[in-house]
Amino acid sequence: MNKLLLGRYLPGDSWVHRLDPRTKLMASFYYIAIIFLANNWQSYLLMFAVTMAMLAASKIKLGFFLRGVRPMIWLILFTVVLQIFFTKGGPTYWSFGWLAITQFGLINGAFIFMRFVLIIFVSTLLTLTTQPLSLADAVESLLRPLRKLHVPVTELALVLQIALRFVPTLMDQTTKIMNAQRARGVDFGSGNLFQQMKAVVPLLIPLFVDSFTIAEDLATAMDARGYQGGDNRTKYRVLRYHRADWLAGAAMVVLTAALVLLRAR
Amino acid sequence: MAEAITIDHLNFHYPDADHPTLKDISLTVNQGEWVAIIGHNGSGKSTLAKNINGLLAPDSGTVVVGGLTLSEETVWAIRAKVGIVFQNPDNQFVGATVADDVAFGLENRGVPRPEMLVRVQDALEAVGMSEFATREPARLSGGQKQRVAIAGIVAQRPDIIILDEATSMLDPAGRAEIVALIQKLREATNLTVLSITHDIDEAAKANRVILLNDGEIKETGTPAEIFAYGPELISLGLDVPYPEKLKAALAARGVAMPSHYLDEEGLVDYLWTLHSTM
Amino acid sequence: MDITFDHVSFTYQAGTPFAGVGLRDITTTIRGGEYTAIIGHTGSGKSTLLQHLNALLKPTSGTVTIGDFTITAETSNKNLRPLRQKVGMVFQFAENQLFEQTVAQDIAFGPKNFGVPEQEALDLAAKMMPLVGLPDTLLDRSPFDLSGGQMRRVAIAGVLAMQPEVLVLDEPTAGLDPAGRLEMMQMFNRLHQESGLTIVLVTHQMDDVADYADNVLVMQNGALVRQGAPADVFADPAWLREHSLGLPKTAVMAEKLAAKGFRFDPLPLTAAALADQLVPQIGGGARE
Asked: Model pTM?
């Protein structure tokens, strides 16, 4: 669990860290979308260069992002292999019955590989440089127009905020209960599937009980502090766009234009 | 003196319990007073606290807080007057950061943001947590989390603060920290404090101690009057104050000891007198 | 069974930017049959040290020897069960580990994991009840119907049922009322005295250290900064205050009395010891 980097936040003070979370969220989605515009080596090279520049700007070590890719490597390779075998065209280098490796297949495989890596890099960059809480703020702010359609955006945002707030608490509790049960002779993660599932029961039940206690205590505390729900609440946290955010937006426009010029028609 | 809390013949029974939890409780807490409620676990102390701000509704009897009789109409107004610090530091921390948590109560009451900023900052300053404003709760000690809970209450400017075993999950340093903080806040404002506690040092700070036993008020008195119970205090839900322990040890060795309560300084003086007249 | 630490260091999440030091070069021995207390601030490394006592954590460098077991960074996680059986661990708020349908089954859970047959384990569970001061009638109840204090006792019974040689206690009385605290500390002391159980207690209560411990380890910032008998460790009040560790109440009282002109040698740590030294100085015994 410690190995997967996607979803973790690494405190830092680069200008990537300081961007408004809404900018980062929108730009990441947009960036991932335009990766699909790239269709030749020039356009992929451009995207690769821009991605590397963004990683460098975050001041986070490259090795870190590479480690983030590692847990996904089998999924990536599987997709790449499928591409290689199932795309036909150009000279054939090897064939066996209906299986064949062609030039197009190899090129397509390489592109798919690039696409995967770039997407993982960018999404890892987003979570590494943005506090989960800020992301929640960004989602709330971007979804606010939905309030007109009677979607309880404010309540959902509070639920999300509280959920994020209690992730470390529950992780902590999980470690404690695991330790207690290991001390009573439970081996987590060993034995056959049935034994492993059985070992999880002494962990899950206490966690479940604990979550209920937390929920009850929290509801009581919120009640005591005057929480009544609804839209009459004011907000302490506000998000504001700064110059860097507009610049980031402009950079996305320039990048799109360059990509359109470079891609094969 | 104005009465901050008046409870008159209150009875409370949890629906699934065999026995009533609170039986015919009547008490008053005056404005600016510090009252400690002690009693062993399960004696009904926390249930009493929840009846004061309408988190639980009594089966019979009345609760008057700051001149308002508790009812469905007044409950939110009363909750604005009463802040409660609960036992578990983690489970009452709503906000994702210290400042967010302090702001939570203000957001609920629709306080405009400019005023909120000022109040949050002031409250954090009052509890000495300003430099932690952007910290996440996972990186705070238990004592610090309770200070944040107190800041959240201070920011709402209530008249009454209830400490519901607020120090019981803290280490001795955290405990001392909270007791000192409450004392400081009381000196700065005319805050009424109701502390539900097992902690002898917390009880010693009170003007008055109410002893709860099996849902009934057994005794009310000054800390010195209650502490004079000596070793019996253990079964009543409080530790024996150290001077009482030493008195018991000396009495067991045949030394004549006064029956009234002496604090540490008092006992030192008493023993020195014995030494001098030896 | 002794537990020996030889230059043990531990780093959390070693090799990542989230790394943090847990233990720094700890060398000490916890002798079998003794009652050892570990004191220090929250975050001083006490809990990390505890988790090395039954290999829940393995040292990043150095060696922990627990009876016949030698634990280093390279030790495999397999075959640690016999070790876990020998070192029973009661964690803070131990009631959180309960999960079975009945009290009896929960207490029997540990022994069953260590290979005790079902019926034997249930018999063992019944035998544990009086040890922790619970009535037999609770055996068939759901642990979740009990009071907080009773749940904690069930959890402790579940650890005792493993029949460990060493009992490790991490602030076992936290959150209990004074009567519950006193009863529980006396219960552990009885187990220590009567069954010769080795006890390792992590606590913030200096009075408990003075009342029960043979040996004290003082942790600070991941390092072991002092160790010895309570009388030695508490003999230096200035040092303890400097590290804001606190003193037993008796020691504080004795200091106040000494300031008036009373003389104490050695510094008394319990009310009984203080009373013994006071009696001749106030002529109390003379009347007998």
From this structure: 0.85
